[in-house]
Amino acid sequence: MSDGREQPADDADRTGVWLVGARGNVATMSIVGARAIARGLTGTTGMVTEREPVSSLDLPPVDGLVFGGHDIAPESLVAQAERQRDRNGVPDAETLAAVRGDLAEIDDRIEVGTAVNCGAAVSEDSERLDERLAVRDVVDQIRDDYETFRERHDLERLVVVNVASTEPELAEPDRYDTRDALERAIDEDDRDLPASVLYTYAAIDGGHPFVNFTPSTGNTLGGIRELAAAKDVPHMGRDAKTGETLVKSALAPMFAGRNLQVMSWEGHNILGNKDGLVLEDEANAAGKLSSKGDVLDSILPDIGHNRVRIDYTPSLADWKTAWDYIHFEGFLDTEMKMQFTWEGSDSALAAPLVLDLVRLVAHADERGNGGLQPQLASFFKAPIGVDEHDFSRQLDRLYDYAEQHR
Amino acid sequence: MSDGREQPADDADRTGVWLVGARGNVATMSIVGARAIARGLTGTTGMVTEREPVSSLDLPPVDGLVFGGHDIAPESLVAQAERQRDRNGVPDAETLAAVRGDLAEIDDRIEVGTAVNCGAAVSEDSERLDERLAVRDVVDQIRDDYETFRERHDLERLVVVNVASTEPELAEPDRYDTRDALERAIDEDDRDLPASVLYTYAAIDGGHPFVNFTPSTGNTLGGIRELAAAKDVPHMGRDAKTGETLVKSALAPMFAGRNLQVMSWEGHNILGNKDGLVLEDEANAAGKLSSKGDVLDSILPDIGHNRVRIDYTPSLADWKTAWDYIHFEGFLDTEMKMQFTWEGSDSALAAPLVLDLVRLVAHADERGNGGLQPQLASFFKAPIGVDEHDFSRQLDRLYDYAEQHR
Amino acid sequence: MSDGREQPADDADRTGVWLVGARGNVATMSIVGARAIARGLTGTTGMVTEREPVSSLDLPPVDGLVFGGHDIAPESLVAQAERQRDRNGVPDAETLAAVRGDLAEIDDRIEVGTAVNCGAAVSEDSERLDERLAVRDVVDQIRDDYETFRERHDLERLVVVNVASTEPELAEPDRYDTRDALERAIDEDDRDLPASVLYTYAAIDGGHPFVNFTPSTGNTLGGIRELAAAKDVPHMGRDAKTGETLVKSALAPMFAGRNLQVMSWEGHNILGNKDGLVLEDEANAAGKLSSKGDVLDSILPDIGHNRVRIDYTPSLADWKTAWDYIHFEGFLDTEMKMQFTWEGSDSALAAPLVLDLVRLVAHADERGNGGLQPQLASFFKAPIGVDEHDFSRQLDRLYDYAEQHR
Amino acid sequence: MSDGREQPADDADRTGVWLVGARGNVATMSIVGARAIARGLTGTTGMVTEREPVSSLDLPPVDGLVFGGHDIAPESLVAQAERQRDRNGVPDAETLAAVRGDLAEIDDRIEVGTAVNCGAAVSEDSERLDERLAVRDVVDQIRDDYETFRERHDLERLVVVNVASTEPELAEPDRYDTRDALERAIDEDDRDLPASVLYTYAAIDGGHPFVNFTPSTGNTLGGIRELAAAKDVPHMGRDAKTGETLVKSALAPMFAGRNLQVMSWEGHNILGNKDGLVLEDEANAAGKLSSKGDVLDSILPDIGHNRVRIDYTPSLADWKTAWDYIHFEGFLDTEMKMQFTWEGSDSALAAPLVLDLVRLVAHADERGNGGLQPQLASFFKAPIGVDEHDFSRQLDRLYDYAEQHR
Ligand SMILES: NC(=O)c1ccc[n+]([C@@H]2O[C@H](COP(=O)([O-])OP(=O)(O)OC[C@H]3O[C@@H](n4cnc5c(N)ncnc54)[C@H](O)[C@@H]3O)[C@@H](O)[C@H]2O)c1
Ligand SMILES: NC(=O)c1ccc[n+]([C@@H]2O[C@H](COP(=O)([O-])OP(=O)(O)OC[C@H]3O[C@@H](n4cnc5c(N)ncnc54)[C@H](O)[C@@H]3O)[C@@H](O)[C@H]2O)c1
Ligand SMILES: NC(=O)c1ccc[n+]([C@@H]2O[C@H](COP(=O)([O-])OP(=O)(O)OC[C@H]3O[C@@H](n4cnc5c(N)ncnc54)[C@H](O)[C@@H]3O)[C@@H](O)[C@H]2O)c1
Ligand SMILES: NC(=O)c1ccc[n+]([C@@H]2O[C@H](COP(=O)([O-])OP(=O)(O)OC[C@H]3O[C@@H](n4cnc5c(N)ncnc54)[C@H](O)[C@@H]3O)[C@@H](O)[C@H]2O)c1
Ligand code: NA
Ligand code: NA
Predict the structure, then answer these.
(1) Is B253 left (phi over 0), alpha (psi -120 to 50) or beta?
(2) Residues A258, A264, A270: CA angle, nearest 5 degrees
(3) Do B332 and A90 touch (CB under 8 A)?
(4) E-strand spans in C29-166?
(5) How far apart are CA C240 and CA C246, in angstroms?
């Protein structure tokens, strides 16, 4: 690694990582982090896979991850990283300088994506596939991008991760409940299918493990799940659990366990990044709010009132602050309160989980475990196919998996 | 129950509860709560034993609990309850009016206790056993009080619970590490033994299940533990986990599980009740602070800085507010923060746990399970003989016990 | 006052207080408080007129206030006070019991009001003047109610205070910019005029000092102000400053004074009373949000971002909690933060100000000072005719007034 | 200023600034800030003298300030600034790089100071004047340092500012209540006199305007004040008001003005810089805690309970977080609460005030206004000779001064 070029330690250890939304905050921070770790500039704090017992698994090394992706933003990865440095202070100037070459190289591997049905996420100046293309052609194009990348870099395995902007919720998703229905819709050029579904379909159909880091529809459709089961491709989602919801999933079980009656749980999130701007749009926020809200309803079925707000506060840049107010009743009808604030750099919380998830679905794929990956539930606000929302119990499932495969 | 007299539903279901510190905040609230539940005036919110899966156990009914105890305070139980009503609003006027007769009756069963080596907890006007009495005589007197109560009320089982003021820490507790050493000390009139040890010894030696709700020495001594094992008497402690420490034990595992590096965790407690006043005295606070501090050190072995403060703020009465500030580092060395405040009525949080613990050690006793009760770890800040401080995992032990015995 | 009947100390000191919205939270708490003070059951904490230098003014005594009013709610004042006691703990049981007779007597003096153009504030079961009545007839009816009350109780002076639910904002208020235009509209049966304007017009035209405690249109109209000036009737408003906005008006000047650049000031209010429910309706909230927002814009003209949210959280009852997050920049572009939470009983904060305002406009009236009362600016979120929002400076105006008239 | 050398705009505008504690956090940030402003790299946010109405005064320009000082720390100004950049992120890398040459030049002008009676502030490796020197000789040496600097840089005026570590409180300061007593003590080699007094005496006696930015004794002595009055030298102090106390002085008047009864005001400060470490030492903290506490006692004479804690939390570096909990009572004995947290970079808050104060005492000196400067009260926690602690009123005095002299 002497010459500043991104290069994995060993050919056998090279795993491709295809990021849909590759120039976004989360993607950029993931790439910067992976390269900074590879270059020995930073530690692995924040990565679940670098801590016992998960670290005992035989996982693809971080310095062997080879990045590519889709995006619709005209700005380069380097420019995006510089903006994060200037606005958030993360990454710091030194780290960015050291990985700038890597970023430039990776930026060349970012292809133009599709933005059908992406709502407010799509700005005027975005570069995207022609909206008039037939759905099937779009899918073929995406698939082609995956394959070209895999071949060019001679990768044995390619993991696709959706870290693109949150899409508006899809109306009546049940119509795509079977593989058959979904594939028919693609063939019949159904104009309702959103971009996230096309990226996901192309990944699963091509045999690439897939992670849905966002609240977008993607792999939640019955048709996708059936396809993944049939083709034995591991996938998991949705909506990574990084901040307020993470805290909720750790705290709510305490109220439940002590039989305390939560009367109201108010959550108010303010954040200043592009994700915040997109979520300020009501249509795009719907999925997010519902995945955030479900956690409490599941852990505290008797909760009286449960609201989540997300507001855009430009000066905060990538910093997200949540204020939660919990009004509860205890013994002898005594009313009590807990409040918390959480102040985190949103993408610095998310990025290590992207790397964790890539490594863990690659591990499942290597061992031939296809379909949904419930042992990854702790990473998501709305883990597909898993009812358990208690963070501690979700983690125990991951630890059991680690014990079984060590 | 038509005539306002305290009376259990059924003779077979009568379990004695002997409270050491029977006129304190926690004791009063426990008695008021139990009687209010018995009279159908309030629900059982806050009681772990009233929620699945623990509620499936065959536990002594709340309305069958018969209360008595020791104290050194001259003020009656009724007067104490009235002060709590006036200062804290808990219990409310209506509830207190309805149980006032029960309290008066129970107050007659409170005997004068010993206060040797109790430090700042002992005020001028307290009524207590003569300090010049020989230790053995004090033990005999206490034992006698237990038996008289049991016989008079024709109780099959008597559970002793220490809810007295926190004592100063005992120097060199190792000298009482065996039953032999402890009994020799009692016989040889060792003037260092504190009251909590005498109450505990008398309970265990008399075959009465015992709960140490306080940070005081009591059943932590090796000698007591050996005795309890030999006599097969169930006991557990110490220092009930009701507020800030409870939250810590639910939250700290989240930081650990996500491999986030906690650099500093500052905890500042302010409270206005007598417990707060006693803990303002440094000697008496030592045990409390250490049991509070251990939780974090255990769950987060790499923690950088961990401090707990307890301050006395008279206007708060029984309300305790904790402010915790958590400074942690994540991916790419990003510094982030979480803060919380917790505002609870201290004794309203503690009281339901007193009832839970009475019921659960009675259950163990009924089934012949003597010695320490690790399944009760979730109730304590410093669970004797248990290393696990993660609240969720501690609860799982209780749930496993419930499954096994349902 | 031996027999539980409401009766002023001395005939000369009797001042009538006509509350529009007389069975609401604020009105009820004002009446309960005034009567509790009159009966020596509570102190005058929270009343600005009971503290130097304002207390040196020759003001009507609290025990000489005689209450009456309009409302459209079917529930009695006693029932309303009982609900406040049960839900909020304020007033306490003892106080309410002692003034219950007074409340019942006052309730008989509450007349049915008009609810034209009151939007969401008007529920199905409300009792109100027939909406088909001509505007002029409604005004006459209201005026008649004022006079009848004044005569029946032989009052020298009657102060009218609007404490009714917030109305939706009036569109194009400029059309009523002159007395002439307003009176023509009344005569021509203009169906756009909202209830608050009718109550206010009737008061001012009848020569009764008037206070607009709410954000509703009332005395903000140019036409009303011209009339009050012409008739020399004192009046002031609008929207009493009791909680979050009060804090803002004390804190924002600190940032300004130190030349710190506020980039974002987020305010999030949650409350559970009927006012909260009404404000949850967007139309009714508009006026409130704008008067709350103006304070910051005025004190911090360079503020970057300024948002206020009001959410309805039923379990809080009359308790309002505000969380404010202030993101500011200092020397060397250093970003810093201040946050606060404010937890107050909304009507307990408002009620003493109602009494203060009644006494102070009565004082102005007695001295022949008609028109707007800028010395009362500190009481309002949007003081009519006053640009100063700095709480400390607003108070200085009141103190100057007190010095001049002592 | 093309060549990176520190150079004032114009000879006539050159004002000397002698910082006692010139390598400390506050001093470093003041120097960095002044030079960054001079070089056009940053704005003047945070400077009171750069905002109307104070900015209308004819003040010495920031780019004309020429820095020198005393310290006992072996580490250079550049090293200190680098540590601040690395630990706090302030100053940022770019700014520091641009002023590094200036810092190096200024560092050469820092002389070794005295550290008599400085307690815990003096570490092993500090370089300081021999403690065996006679007091009079120390004073002469200091005076000489001032003069040499003034002459070498051809400065018309030199302002001395104490920004050294907080000293332990002086016992029985009354013995130095007159100029006579003080000068006798110096001549008679009184070993109790602390360093701050010697620096101050030398300044005032030499005719140099003086600012006591710290809680140390310095110019609070009667003897010093008499001397300054006699010699007509302007001086002011003590203990700059930058964080929690500033907020208190803005908020407490609100509670007073609304006649709300503050029952408890708890303040808990955590900070990680050297000032925090020194204040962790009880002797050194005494003065600080008392000047912080006085503000509330003065504004809220009826306050029930008022405590301030300062704790050292290393990971926070120069960031200070205060949590304040205010428990107050309002109308009808209703208990309510306000809480705030304040998170600021301690020295970034202090530094602009150092520049403000230098400019403002220079202004007074220029106009021949000697002695205490009450118009500067708003800058201090314990303004000498001023009883007013209400921030808004203190500011009004400054604004009046500005109006008078514009
Ligand atoms: N902590 C977190 O940051 C976090 C946690 C959970 C989920 N998420 C989700 O991760 C996603 C990314 O968040 P972010 O902060 O990086 O957002 P971002 O706005 O910074 O980045 C999104 C990127 O996706 C690109 N994009 C948008 N539509 C696209 C499309 N159709 N095809 C290809 N690229 C497209 C955008 O151009 C942008 O570069 C969001 O959906 C967010 O909700 C983030
Ligand atoms: N949430 C909680 O309230 C909580 C949580 C954990 C532990 N605890 C512990 O429970 C204990 C009781 O707390 P509290 O708030 O009821 O305190 P309290 O001061 O109100 O009551 C203590 C009672 O013990 C009595 N007492 C003191 N020394 C005694 C002795 N030697 N023998 C008999 N009686 C004695 C006192 O007279 C008093 O009535 C304390 O040790 C406290 O630390 C309380
Ligand atoms: N701290 C505070 O409580 C506070 C502060 C500032 C302003 N205010 C304002 O004071 C007003 C009253 O607040 P509240 O909490 O008492 O509300 P509330 O809903 O409890 O009471 C309002 C009362 O007005 C009555 N009403 C509604 N429309 C009416 C009409 N057209 N004529 C006569 N009566 C009518 C309702 O029936 C109800 O009894 C609101 O406008 C509120 O915004 C309150
Ligand atoms: N917001 C603030 O930072 C703030 C506010 C008010 C007051 N203050 C006061 O300002 C002072 C400086 O704060 P800081 O954060 O810069 O502290 P610091 O510890 O960073 O700096 C103090 C400097 O003084 C030097 N020093 C100590 N004793 C000395 C002596 N006898 N002679 C000469 N130099 C000596 C030290 O070597 C050090 O370089 C403290 O007294 C502090 O209480 C600071
Ligand atoms: Na209650
Ligand atoms: Na910055």
Answers:
(1) alpha
(2) 115
(3) yes
(4) 65-71, 110-112, 157-162
(5) 9
Is a pLDDT exceeding 50 seen at residue C4? no
User: What average pLDDT does range C300-308 have in this prediction?
Assistant: 93
| pLDDT confidence bin for C281, thresholds 50/70/90 | low
CB contact under 8 A, B270 and D321: no
Q: Which residues pair with B162 in a beta bridge?
A: B20, B212
Q: Is the pLDDT of residue A213 over 90?
A: yes
* Beta strands D319-329 and D261-271, pairing class: antiparallel
Torsion sign across C-alpha atoms D240, D244, D247, D249: negative
H/E stretch holding A319: strand A319-329
Residues 259-318 of A with CB under 8 A from B: 259-261
Residue spans per domain, chain A: 11-240+348-405, 244-344
Q: What is the mean pLDDT of chain D?
A: 93
Cα D23 to Cα B279, B333, D19, D211: the distances in Å are 41, 28, 9, 17
- The DSSP bridge pattern shows strands B335-345 and B371-372 to be unpaired
pLDDT tens-digit map of D165-203:
999 999 999 999 999 999 999 999 999 999 999 999 999
Give the span between the Cα atoms of C309 and C289, in whole angstroms.
Answer: 8
Q: Are A33 and A19 in contact (CB under 8 A)?
A: no
* Residues C206, D269: Cα–Cα separation, whole Å: 57
Q: Residue D128 pLDDT more than 70? A: yes
Interatomic CA distance for residues D143 and D163, integer angstroms: 17
Alpha-carbon dihedral sign for residues D275, D277, D280, D283: negative
Which of the following CATH numbers is that of domain C244-344: 3.40.50.11540, 3.40.50.1820, 2.70.150.10, 3.30.360.10? Answer: 3.30.360.10
Distance (angstroms) between ligand 2 centre and the Cα of C277 equals 43
Selected for mutation to probe chain C from D334, D380, D393 (highest C CB count within 10 Å) is: D334
Residues with Cβ within 8 Å of residue C155, at least 6 apart in sequence: C14, C15, C16, C66, C149
* Cα C258 from Cα D49, distance rounded (Å): 9
Torsion, CA B128, CA B133, CA B136, CA B138, rounded to 10: -10
Q: What's the distance, CA B76 to chain centroid?
A: 21
Compute the mean pLDDT over every residue in chain B, rounded to the nearest whole number.
Answer: 93
> What would the pLDDT profile of D287-307 be if each residue is shown by its tens digit?
667 767 689 999 999 999 999
Band (C122; pLDDT cuts 50, 70, 90): confident
Upper half-sphere CA count for residue B398 (Cβ side, 13 Å): 28
| Predicted model pTM | 0.94
Q: How far is C260 from chain A (nearest CA, A)?
A: 15
Angle at A375 between CA A374 and CA A380, to 5 degrees: 70
Q: Report, as an integer, the average pLDDT of B318-336.
A: 95
CATH 3.40.50.720 at D11-240+348-405, yes or no: yes
Instruction: Give dist(CA D222, CA C146) in Å, integer.
Output: 66
Residues in chain A: 406
- Give B16's contacts (C-beta < 8 A, 6+ positions apart): B65, B66, B67, B68, B149, B150, B153, B155, B157, B158, B159
CA distance A143 to A313: 38
Q: What is the pLDDT, as a whole number, of residue A125?
A: 82
- Cβ contacts (< 8 Å) between D44 and chain C: which residues? 259
Residue C177's contacts (CB-CB under 8 Å, 6 or more residues apart) are C221, C222, C223
Prior bond to D238 cis, omega within 30? yes
**Pairwise CB contact (< 8 Å): B321 & D321:** no
Which amino acid, one-letter code, is at D148?
T
Q: Which two tokens stand for residue C361?
A: 């406009």
Classify each residue of B130-152 as buried b or exposed e, where b means 16 or more C-beta atoms within 10 Å of its C-beta.
Answer: eeeeebeebbebbbebbeebbee
